[in-house]
Design a protein that fits this description.
The chain has 15 helices and 19 strands. With about 575 residues, the protein is an alpha/beta fold. A six-stranded mixed beta sheet has the order 11-12-10-9-7-14. A five-stranded antiparallel beta sheet has the order 2-1-5-4-3, with helices on both faces. Strands 16-15-17-18-19 form a five-stranded parallel beta sheet, with helices on both faces. Its EC number is 2.7.13.3.
Length: about 575
């Protein structure tokens, strides 16, 4: 290929590049006169390439932009100052038809030695670019504002969390104080009524005492339910996981309610289906609380007929088993339209039921929440005037229980007859000459008097103190006289020095006297707190005489001169 042919080919390629170029390319002289233009000039500015030749490049700039445009050209064309050569300049261009275009021009000097006074201008339509840039700017601005709002929200959230934390702390303290303030007087009410009952012969007076005790116990249960629901809602409720017998709990429920069922003329049945595990892992206290609530409701809302307590196992898979407790009755039933509200707080089947049968509507709510915390489900089926069936379903893995094989199917019925539960802790267990010496510490005079009566009834000597400091001083005095105390009953909430401080002080002095914590606080953490302070055992108010006696006897030294069997 000859040099002439090469030149022709290069010219052809140059024309093709200019033809398909998106940007507008123009050749101008030192005065800005257009010598040649690419075909894209018609698309961008509406001028034909041959039509624009001879026009000044200024024709592409809008009138408002001419001053800045001329300054840029002056710096590029025929000037010794070449700082602007190759640098872009944005301006508002104008279409031949009069519309405006956002443009950017870059001027380059022609390097051909024979054409020192010629320049190449590249003009680009940047309308879409500016739109994108503006959108990006708007987005970045919105993002900036969003970050400011997010920071503000985070600050507000942290402030709100602090408020909630303070509120929860205040609520927790309120619940603790409420529990203490309610349980302490209830201990006196129930305890003194039981003591008074022993000294009355009149049938009417005994009935009055029974009414006081029954209603006092009911009031205490309602308060306990409300406090438990509050603890659950606060996330301050604790669930234990220990081994226990599911059938033993069922029998304990029967023992608890057979007398009540008999008084109403109801049959109370228990049924065992197939093989029941001898033990499972869960919280026996909470499980019993749920079942007692369900059985209590069944008896309350059943005027005639029967109440059934059943337990059975269901297989979901080889390693996945379900344990079910079923409480059914032949009572008034629940209307279909009320079923979906039955587990909501303070829900009643209807106002007449509330008047006829009593109840606060918190028992089923608490039971439902407790079963959920135990990892199970509480469901209900009911037909009006035919009865209700409540089913507690717990998932028990194979690894969490051992099977019992000695009981495949049983059916017990009280049939209105009350089985007598023998009391293994009658007063004959304590001989008249028993000399156990007890230090009783409580800041409430009535409680000191009540517990002193109970302990004296057991044949034990009692010394009292009203706060922890008095108790520590009495222990020191007894040590000096070598007239030691065999057991300390210690209230934990007291002025001057509380039970935790007194117990820690005694333990730090190497004193190993058994100390039984007596408190109105009932959380699992409260028990752990008492034991961590050095207490030997924990009892929560109110305390029944039989329970107190069993614990006291358990920790008294087993010597003939102290306790006779």
């Amino acid at each position: 290929m000859t040099s002439h042919q090469v030149k022709l080919f290069d010219d052809y390629l140059a024309r093709q590049i200019l033809k398909f170029s998106i940007d507008v390319s123009v050749a101008i002289d030192e005065l800005g006169v257009v010598l040649m233009a690419s075909e894209s000039v018609s698309r961008v500015f509406g001028w034909q390439p041959d039509e624009i030749v001879g026009e000044n490049i200024r024709v592409f700039a809008s009138e408002s932009q001419l001053k800045q445009f001329d300054q840029y050209l002056a710096q590029c064309l025929g000037s010794e100052n070449e700082n602007s050569i190759g640098h872009a300049h944005q301006f508002k261009g104008i279409h031949k038809g009069g519309s405006y275009i956002a443009c950017e021009i870059t001027v380059w000097r022609d390097d051909d030695s024979h054409r020192q006074n010629r320049y190449i201008g590249i003009i680009r339509d940047i309308t879409e670019h500016l739109k994108s840039k503006n959108k990006l700017g708007e987005y970045l601005e919105r993002l900036k504002q969003s970050r400011k709002q997010l920071k503000r929200k985070i600050h507000e959230l942290k402030s709100a969390q602090k408020v909630v934390a303070r509120a929860n702390q205040a609520k927790s303290e309120f619940l603790a104080n409420m529990s203490h303030e309610v349980r302490t007087p209830m201990t006196a009410i129930l305890g003194y009524s039981e003591a008074l009952k022993e000294k009355l012969d009149s049938k009417d007076n005994l009935e009055f005492i029974d009414i006081i005790q029954k209603n006092g116990s009911h009031l205490l249960q309602v308060i306990n339910d409300i406090l438990d629901i509050s603890k659950i809602e606060m996330g301050n409720f604790e669930i234990m996981k220990v081994d226990f017998s599911p059938t033993k709990i069922l029998q304990e429920i029967v023992d608890e309610f057979e007398s009540q069922a008999s008084q109403k003329g109801l049959n109370l049945y228990t049924r065992y289906h197939d093989l029941i595990p001898s033990s499972i892992q869960s919280d026996p206290l909470r499980m019993k609380q749920v079942l007692m609530n369900l059985v209590s409701n069944a008896i309350k809302f059943t005027e005639s007929g029967s109440v059934y307590l059943e337990i059975r196992m269901l297989s979901q898979s080889k390693d996945d088993r379900l344990l079910q407790y079923i409480v059914s009755d032949t009572g008034i039933g629940i209307p279909k339209e009320k079923m979906k509200y039955i587990f909501e707080p303070f829900a009643q089947v209807d106002s007449s039921s509330s008047r006829n049968y009593g109840g606060t509507g918190v028992g089923l709510t608490l039971s439902h929440k407790l079963v959920q915390l135990l990892g199970g489900n509480l469901s209900v089926q009911s037909t009006v005037n035919r009865g209700s069936v409540f089913t507690v379903t717990l998932n028990v893995d194979e690894k969490n229980f051992s099977r019992q094989s000695d009981k495949s199917s049983q059916n017990f019925c009280t049939s209105g007859a009350v089985r007598r539960v023998e009391n293994n802790h009658d007063d004959k267990n304590v001989s008249p000459g028993a000399r156990g010496k007890i230090l009783l510490v409580d800041d409430t005079k009535e409680i000191r008097k009540l517990f002193s009566y109970m302990l004296n009834k057991m044949g034990l000597e009692v010394v009292t103190a009203s706060n922890g400091k008095e108790a520590v001083d009495l222990v020191h005095e007894a040590t000096i006289k070598e007239d030691f105390y065999h057991l300390i009953l210690m209230d934990m909430q007291m002025p001057v020095m509380n039970g935790y401080e007194a117990t820690q002080l005694l333990r730090s002095q190497k004193n190993q006297i058994p100390i039984i914590a007596i408190t109105a606080h009932t959380l699992v953490s409260d028990r752990e707190k008492c034991l961590a302070a050095g207490c030997t055992e924990y009892l929560s108010k109110p305390i029944k005489y039989e329970v107190l006696r069993e614990v006291v006897h358990r920790y008294l030294p087993q010597k003939k001169e102290v306790l006779s069997n």
